[in-house]
Amino acid sequence: SAQKVYGLVQQYKTLRFFFEPLIIHFQCANQEEANAILQELQSNGFKKANLLSIKHWTMEIREPGNIETILTKDLPERYIRLLVKEANARLKKTKQHREKLEKIFLTHHS
Question: Which of 6, 34, 55, 88 is geometrically suited to a Cys-Cys bond with 28, CB 3.0 to 4.6 A?
Fold first, then answer.
């Protein structure tokens, strides 16, 4: 909670706050599978899905939206509430995207 984060900042004077969204790496069996999965991902809104390596057909799915900042005891509590609210909203989106990915992969491999 924002109140807990604010209390920790007051106690420790400086904290590093960060949120990292979903990042997944996986390998495909061959070029055809990589192309099919990439097309499926991109057509389902995963614009940051790409092929990292053709040697092992390694794919990456990355969501934008990192948050990284330093919190100090001089920051107002309302700013920390806003930051925690935004991080929680992004976490909710990440969970929704993970569920969407599960459906895509289950459909692709059934």
Answer: 34
pTM value?
0.80
- Smallest CA-to-CA distance from 62 within 21, 102, 34 is with 21
SS (H, E, C) the chain: CHHHHHHHHHHHCEEEEEECCCEEEEECCCHHHHHHHHHHHHHCCCCCEEEEECCCCEEEEECCCCEEEEEECCCCHHHHHHHHHHHHHHHHHHHHHHHHHHHHHHHHCC
Nearest to 95 by CA among 28, 18, 19: 19
